[in-house]
């Protein structure tokens, strides 16, 4: 079962979107979001699994 999540997935996704939209540096991350190290971990995990790849239109 594992340990309960400390941060909601939506909050983590919103934080990743904030970084993408503003170009904010990881170390200057607002305190309204989870710690930047947590967001960074999930971002790199999504990137490495291909979840952030943009798929073009299928012809």
Description:
Helices cover 46% and strands 0% of the residues. By secondary structure, it is mainly alpha-helical. Helix 1 (9-22) crosses helix 2. The mean pLDDT is 87.
From the N-terminal CA to the C-terminal CA, the straight-line distance is 42 Å
Summing up helix and strand content along with how strands pair, one would put the structural category as mainly alpha
* Poorly predicted parts: none
What's the number of helices? 2
Taking Cα atoms only, what radius of gyration do you get, to the nearest Å? 13 Å
Brief digest:
By secondary structure, the chain is mainly α. 46% of the residues lie in helices and 0% in strands. The mean pLDDT is 87.
Descriptive key words:
59 residues, mainly alpha, 2 helices
Topology:
Layout: H1 9-22, H2 36-48
Helix pairs in contact: 1-2
């Amino acid at each position: 079962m594992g340990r309960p999540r400390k941060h909601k997935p939506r909050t983590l996704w919103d934080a990743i979107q904030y970084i993408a939209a503003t170009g904010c540096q990881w170390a200057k991350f607002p305190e309204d979001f989870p710690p930047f190290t947590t967001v960074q971990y999930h971002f790199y995990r999504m990137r490495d699994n291909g979840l952030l790849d943009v798929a073009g239109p299928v012809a």
